[in-house]
Write a structure and sequence with these properties.
The structure holds two protein chains of two kinds. Chain A is elongated, with a radius of gyration of 33 Å. Helix content of chain A is 51%, strand content 18%. The longest helix of chain A is centred in the last third of the chain and has 36 residues. In chain A, α19 links the parallel β18 and β19. In chain A, strands 10-22-21-20-11-18-19 form a seven-stranded mixed sheet, with helices on both faces. A six-stranded antiparallel sheet of chain A has the order 2-1-3-9-4-7, with no helix packed on it. Chain B is mostly helical. In chain B, 82% of the residues lie in helices and 0% in strands. Chain B contains nine helices and no strands. The termini of chain B are far apart. The chains are: A alpha+beta, B mainly alpha. Chains A and B meet through α1 and β2 of A and α4, α6 and α7 of B.
Chain lengths: 650, 234
């Protein structure tokens, strides 16, 4: 083994056997879905026990004993653990009922309880993803080593965790900046798209700050470290996400809340019947007509087969339907959260917009436009840059102009000679500061006045060819489905807002296009988290995002929804729902599905309780034998299962 | 670096097998679960054959021995699984403790690493660079500390369930052969097959563990015969 074992994955899985570093790789699949396989085997043996009970009772008992061993032992361990923590819940009730059923000769009914319980629990475990993220992707994104510059001027690899403030590091083109620092030599452009949501790479020169996690584009930078690994931007985001996850209200299943009260009530009632029936009705304590026998019968008949499957079958059907639509939910209880949400906060770049720049305007500032677009594209074709992609897309299909003497100045712009009408002319394209240094004297003052009047612009580039200056403006394209989605969500009466790390102008433009009433711009990850925390206090909130900068907010929101294709792995890790195909329009459908699931779970619980009441009361009064009560009881189980299957329909 | 020395494996695989060899050689044999489903099967077969021989020596009827064999097979498989999972749980705890040490006592871990590699002959700048490279990646560091400091070998154990199946199959085969022989040839048949199973199982175990086969074979047979004789004489 030359590569280190992925221990992060092992710990993130909760030390699952399927990824245990000590087991041989070919041996690990033996531990896959073990509880599900065991419960299915128990179900099969129970079926044989039932069939054999008519033919060969001893063999039937053998099968039954095996069922109790396979399904009963894990249930007993869990129940003893709950009792040790003084927690009386529906699982404890079920286990006690199953074991006591042997005493009154109803071993088959008890085994059925155990099997249903085992199957429902293991199916949930098998299909649901772990909700707790170990932030593997974010830790992997942060470089472990950096090129350290020592006092002698030599560069060598050093662990990032060993680097202190004021140390100097070299960050080459294409590398991720390992630690927060200040540029001391070199110039380049850095991409902060996944950290702040800004589409356009930002120039960085001597004296500028660069955050850890930024991607260095073309040039090389020597930086002086200003914050160590413990305090770096990425470490702060990790800390924010971890704190947000801890503060997030746990999505408790309806059955868990209701189950505690139900279990306590049934146990108390059984005790009451056992003690009070003799003095009230003159019944004996012992014997088949005795109060203790009836109380045990009541306890078993009231045991919640239908209740046990009411929620998992509904969740599983809903999850299955969502998966077919390309939506991955990391737990069934998230559907409850989705149904409860009253507000939705959207990120901008990559969520409501595609994250791709497009050239929205070409304005000649000095001289005429002429072939400005072709010239610009001919130069930009030589580099990898979002602006280059946008310009080349605009001239798609046209033949570009021949160029020579091409030069790229990272952090500034491009320069080359372009052939125009048989004559070679020098062209410059890039930032305003760079173009200003190339302008002929007569145009310089006019340009400075224009800059002062127009103010800072979000995404632009300037092309200078002799005395012709052309301004290119770019904007982030809205997704086609963003506007129809917002309209549908407004009809649901949801409160909608935009939270972005991008500039005010960009945020306002998108907000106005979509008719969103509220927006907040220039937000850092901690600002987004604070806003989500504040809004969550008033009403349950859904957050939709895709970048690393959204991850803390996604983790904190009642429900975090991330974009699976365009989104960063960190956002996907931190969120509860992943839109695998980035089909944002399905968000409205998802909310509807959540509300439908909650309705069906309530119907299931009502149905299960009604059947229990109908089955147990006659049994308690001695009007019907136990086996009739159990049949009625199982009929309820079937109805609940069928009702849940309605959620399979999209 | 000759192919003969590494027996056709690459250096990393060779090092792993060497560490495995070391851990087997130094592990406590008495009452412990041998790794591997095959060795589990061999041991289980040996024990089952011996047990049936002892029962037959005491005059137990065939029907009783059949019932006991069924329960014994499930017992052997279950015990093997429980022991295997217990060992896995212990190993996982060790790895968690070591990870905690790396996260919270990094400087001490670095000092341990320096000492480990100094003992291997690394010095000066080479030692510093080697330690820096290892400290840079937590996953790599954890692996090195598990292997170098604790002497554990990754990816060397079979799943407890696989070992359990091996043990159960071994017991089942031994019981089936011995009891079938008893059904046809009474005690003589059972005794013959029991000794045969003990002999084969001992030889296979010795072979898997790369020990001398003849002493293992003779000692196991002698022990089985001796115990059976004690029961007969008493």
């Amino acid at each position: 083994m030359n590569t280190p074992y992925p221990f992060d994955e092992f710990f993130a899985s909760g030390k699952a056997e399927t990824v245990s570093p000590f087991l041989r790789p070919r041996s690990r699949p033996w531990g896959k879905n073990l509880s599900l396989k065991s419960s299915l085997l128990a179900a099969l043996l129970l079926f044989f026990a039932f069939i054999l009970s008519w033919i060969h009772p001893s063999a039937s008992h053998l099968c039954l004993a095996t069922v109790y061993f396979l399904a009963g032992t894990p249930a007993l361990i869990d129940s003893l653990d709950d009792l040790r923590n003084l927690e009386i819940n529906i699982d404890v009730l079920m286990t006690i009922a199953a074991l006591l059923s042997i005493l009154i000769g109803s071993g088959m009914e008890g085994a059925l309880l155990l099997v249903l319980f085992a199957i429902s629990g293991s199916m949930e475990e098998a299909v649901m993803q772990k909700t707790k993220s170990a932030l593997i992707s974010l830790r992997q994104m942060a470089p472990k080593m950096a090129l350290y510059l020592d006092k002698n001027g030599d560069f060598y690899q050093k662990a990032v965790s060993e680097i202190t403030v004021s140390d100097r590091l070299l960050v080459k083109a294409g590398e991720i900046v390992p630690l927060d620092g200040r540029v001391v030599a070199g110039s380049s452009e850095v991409s902060l798209a996944h950290l702040t949501g800004e589409n356009l790479p930002q120039p960085r020169h001597v004296g500028d700050e660069v955050p850890a996690g930024a991607r260095n584009m073309e040039g090389s930078l020597t930086i002086e470290v200003t914050r160590t690994n413990r305090d770096s931007t990425l470490s702060r985001i990790i800390e924010l996400i971890t704190k947000a996850q801890d503060a997030k209200p746990r999505a408790e299943r309806m059955l868990d809340r209701f189950g505690k009260y139900y279990a306590m009530s049934i146990m108390l009632l059984s005790l009451l019947f056992a003690l009070c029936l003799p003095p009230l009705f003159g019944l004996p304590f012992l014997g088949h007509e005795g109060s203790i026998y009836r109380a045990l019968t009541f306890l078993i008949a009231a045991s919640p087969c239908a209740l046990i499957i009411a929620t998992p079958t509904a969740y599983l059907s809903a999850l299955s339907c969502c998966a077919r639509k390309g939506i991955l939910l990391k737990g069934g209880a998230i559907l409850d959260g989705i149904a409860a949400c009253q507000a939705i906060a959207f990120d901008k770049t990559g969520t409501l917009t595609t994250g791709q720049l497009s050239c929205s305007a070409i304005t000649p500032l000095f001289g005429n436009e002429g072939d400005a677009l072709l010239i610009a594209a001919s130069l930009e074709r030589e580099v990898v840059h979002p602006i280059s992609t946008a310009l080349c897309a605009k001239v798609s299909g046209q033949s570009l102009l021949p160029i020579r003497q091409f030069k790229s100045l990272p952090g500034f712009g491009l320069q080359a000679e372009v052939e125009l009408g048989g004559r070679w002319q020098t062209a410059y394209i890039g930032h305003a500061d760079y173009i200003e240094t190339k302008l002929p004297a007569p145009l310089l003052e006019k340009f400075k006045s224009w800059r002062k009047e127009s103010g800072p612009k979000a995404a632009i580039t300037l092309l200078l060819v002799e005395d012709r200056l052309t301004l290119f403006e770019f904007e982030d394209q809205l997704r086609k489905e963003s506007a129809p989605l917002i309209e549908k969500l407004k009809k649901r009466g949801l409160n909608l807002l935009l939270l972005t790390g991008d500039h005010e102008e960009s945020a306002k433009q998108v907000s106005d296009s979509l008719g969103l009433s509220h927006y907040l711009a220039n937000l850092r990850p901690e600002d987004k988290l604070d806003k989500i925390t504040e809004l969550s206090k008033t009403a349950p909130l859904m957050m939709v995002g895709d970048g690393v900068n959204d991850a803390p907010a996604l983790a904190r929101a009642q429900v975090g929804v991330s974009m699976g294709k365009i989104g960063s792995a960190t956002a996907v890790d931190a969120s509860d729902v992943v839109m695998l195909r980035d089909e944002l329009i399905l968000l409205d459908w998802l909310i509807g599905q959540g509300k439908k699931t909650v309705r069906i779970v309530r119907e299931n619980l009502t149905l299960a309780l009604a059947v229990i009441l109908i089955a147990t009361t006659p049994a308690l009064l001695g009007w019907v034998p136990l086996w009739v009560a159990v049949i009625l009881h199982e009929g309820g189980t079937l109805l609940v299962g069928l009702n849940s299957l309605r959620l399979l329909r999209a | 670096m000759s192919l003969d020395h590494f027996q056709g494996k690459n250096v990393a695989d060779h090092l792993r097998d060497a560490r495995l060899k070391g851990s087997y050689a130094s592990s406590e044999m008495h009452g412990s679960e041998l790794p591997g489903h095959l060795t589990a099967a061999a041991e289980s077969a040996k024990e089952t054959a011996a047990l049936l021989l002892f029962l037959a020596t005491l005059g137990a009827p065939l029907f009783l021995m059949v019932l006991l064999s069924l329960a014994w097979t499930i017992w052997k498989g279950g015990r093997s699984a429980i022991a295997g999972w217990a060992k896995l749980e212990r190993l996982h705890r060790v790895i968690e403790e070591e990870r905690y040490e790396i996260e919270h006592h990094r400087q001490q871990e670095k000092e341990e690493l320096i000492e480990l590699y100094r003992a291997k002959g690394f010095e000066g700048r080479l030692l510093d660079e080697a330690v820096e490279v290892l400290m840079a990646d937590d996953n790599r560091l954890l692996k090195v500390m598990l292997e170098e400091e604790l002497g554990l070998t990754l990816e060397s154990y079979e799943h407890p369930l696989k070992q359990a199946v091996g043990a159960a199959v071994g017991a089942l085969i031994a019981a089936a052969l011995s009891l079938t022989a008893m059904a046809f040839w009474q005690f003589a048949g059972l005794a013959t097959f029991s000794f045969l199973i003990v002999a084969i199982a001992s030889s296979l175990s010795a072979r898997f563990e790369k020990r001398a086969i003849l002493p293992a074979l003779v000692w196991n047979l002698a022990l089985t015969f001796f115990c059976a004789l004690i029961l007969y004489l008493l």
